[in-house]
Amino acid sequence: xxxxxxxxxxxxxxxxxxxxxxxxxxxxxxxxxxxxxxxxxxxxxxxxxxxxxxxxxxxxxxxxxxxxxxxxxxxxxxxxxxxxxxxxxxxxxxxxxxxxxxxxxxxxxxxxxxxxxxxxxxxxxxxxxxxxxxxxxxxxxxx
Length: 143
Hints:
Layout: H1 57-60, E1 74-78, E2 89-90, H2 92-97, E3 107-111, E4 121-122, E5 126-127, H3 129-138, E6 141-142
Parallel strand pairs: 1-3, 2-4, 3-5, 4-6
């Protein structure tokens, strides 16, 4: 079988609209563009989302951008808040039980604010560089 012998499906062939082929064709003279006006001229292009002067949909709707979903579940704790605990081992479960963070938070980050006076061992909690220096200065450990 040769490709040039295969006849295509009749529905797959679209007839091209032939413009400017005389009055009898139905698309002669003005070629379906009407008389005068901006749309009748060569080089006319309409803006992609133009709505005839109405406020376009992309300007009517509010702007939305990237919002981190993880941000809702991260609790930041200041370093001086850890001074009130008598326990030297601090992890996420201990902070939840001590009511310093609610159950909706999954992650914790300790930020440097104030002075830490105790030697504290921290497990599985993110900390800043300043807090790391304070803990190591007091003789604590980070795991």
